Amino acid sequence: MARIDAFLKLGTQQGCSDIHLAVGVPPMLRMFGDLVPIKFRELRDTELEGYIAEILTPTQAEVFAKGADVDFSYVSADGGRFRVNVFHKDTGAGAVFRTIPSDIPTLEKLALPPIIRKLCDYHQGMILVTGSTGSGKSTTLAAMIDLLNTTRKLNIISLEDPIEFVHRSKSSQVIQRELGTHLPSFAEGVRAAMREDPDVILVGEMRDAETISMAMTAAETGHLVLGTLHTTGAVKTIDRIIDALPIEQREQTKSFLSQSLLAVVTQVLCKTADGQGRKAICEVMVMTRAIAKLIQTDQTHQIPSQVQMGRDFGMQMLDQALLAAVQAREIDPDHANSFTQDKRLLQKFVTDTSLVPKLELRPGGGT
Q1: 212/246 Cα distance (integer angstroms)
Q2: Lower CB density within 10 Å: C or N end of the chain?
Q3: Number of Cα atoms under 13 Å in the Cβ half of residue 366
Q4: How far apart are CA 65 and CA 340, in angstroms?
């Protein structure tokens, strides 16, 4: 048993989302969004490097020794599964372990908007789940894949970096491939997947122009493509895709988005009202004729107004979703306030008065 497993076991028993190990500080746990140190001495350089060395393969150890970061999945002695990043910093080595639940949560358990379940009924097109790192994108996608795996007879090819949730084939066949282990890049993975009779292709991260282009081709040629981007909001997501590709492909890209992009789901993880968990709150944009026209005419800045008016299509702005969750006492208003665009929206709910925006006096003494 690797010595590092003791820290991982403690972390999972405490219900944390991440375990942080770094030289010069004690091990820390991410508990419901906050980083909390455990009662242990500060880790020494040679000590932590020894812990890390015990769980690296020879190839990973060689890459790490050259100063590069290494991403991989790890299964501890007691069966716990983790997504791992090991790295170097000014004082020595560091590592972060993201806990991966053994059971794949359902969309209902995650309490995600009902429209996300309906999106899984499509047979062709692209669905993007976006958000910052640690916003729960992988969990949402895993729940979507599990729904497809349970309810439809499909060939699902999932390209990941690294493999997180392990899917057992049910009604569908699920093939999971890992970047660096089974494929050299996401773009090559999509290219190969298209020769493997897929119905659904999950692209773990659309991080470069080639991957985006290949994913678009897959969506246009009769496949359902699920992907992620580190963007916050539908407008930024659409603009990012258009800007990522060469200028000469701009019109083609806008045409693709208006015809084949099904939806953009952007999410944040907000502390629950009792402080004992976190809940995903989503902004949802579903493609309509009006939004398609805005994309084609370079008026993406007007998309938010369409989302606000699109409740009948299952759409919602993030601010709307945050307000509804606060009013239902599902999430902590102080934490929710940090995600709102309009800081006055939750003014009457926040308990920390320093978060309340100050009203500016207008000439004549009004506000």
Answers
A1: 12
A2: C
A3: 2
A4: 43
Query: DSSP states of 168-190 as a string?
Result: PPSSSEEEEEEBTTTBS-HHHHH
155-172 residue pLDDT tens: 999 999 989 999 999 999
DSSP 95: E
Backbone angles phi and psi of 173, in degrees to 5: -100, 125
Classify burial at 367, counting beta carbons within 10 Å of its beta carbon; exposed 0-12, middle 13-18, buried 19 or more: exposed
Confidence of residue 356 (pLDDT cuts 50, 70, 90): low
Phi, psi angles (nearest 5°) of residue 249: -100, 5
Is residue 224 classed exposed, middle or buried when 0-12, 13-18 and 19+ CB atoms within 10 A define those classes?
A: buried
Can you tell me the distance from the alpha carbon of 53 to that of 60, in angstroms, rounded to the nearest whole number? 9
Tokens at 122, concatenated: 């499509």
Type of residue at 80? G
Compute and round to an integer the Cα radius of gyration of the chain: 22
Token duo for residue 316? 């919602």
Amino acid at 19: I
Q: How far apart are CA 88 and CA 270, in angstroms?
A: 30
The pTM of the full predicted model, rounded to 2 decimals, is 0.88
